[in-house]
Amino acid sequence: MSKEDSFWFAIAGAVVWLAATLFYAAFAGGLIEQAFWFYTLNAALVAAAIAFFFHLTARLRRLPQRRRAAAALAFSAPGLLGSLLVLALFDTLLPDLPPESLGRYGAFVAVAYGVLALLALERPARTA
Fold it and tell me: By residue range, what is the domain housing residue 94?
């Protein structure tokens, strides 16, 4: 994977992570964390959105399937680092959320990037 590809995957990953985190910050206390089923649905939708934008970036960059593991690392690195920062400063950055939201946000991130890792490590289809 080229440096230019890495750059674009990192930028796309940072933008997607920021959007997902801002969504969580805006709606966690009043909507997302009100019911377990709704929290689970949101986590699945965010994981699907992150995977969608990863695959969209891969298609736009015309990246072959065999190089997607490295691309997923570049895509997820800014989000994982940003999430660590949010988790470390949770009370300061999200003071309106209850303390138990810290673990919920961590699970939210783990599910999203776990799904991305599974999709990126998917084996390419064999041609006949």
Answer: 26-35+50-68+84-123
pLDDT digits (tens), the chain, 128 positions: 788 888 999 999 999 999 988 888 888 777 666 777 777 787 788 888 888 888 888 888 888 877 778 888 899 999 999 999 999 998 898 888 888 888 888 888 888 888 888 877 766 666 65
Residues in the chain: 128
Q: Tell whether 31 is covered by a domain.
A: yes
* Residue 109 domain-assigned (yes or no): yes
13 lies in some domain: no
**SS3 letters for 24-65?**
HHHHCCCCHHHCHHHHHHHHHHHHHHHHHHHHHHHHHCCCCH
Q: How many structural domains compose the chain? A: 1
- Whether 94 is covered by a domain: the verdict is yes
Whether the CA torsion 62, 64, 70, 71 is positive or negative: it is positive
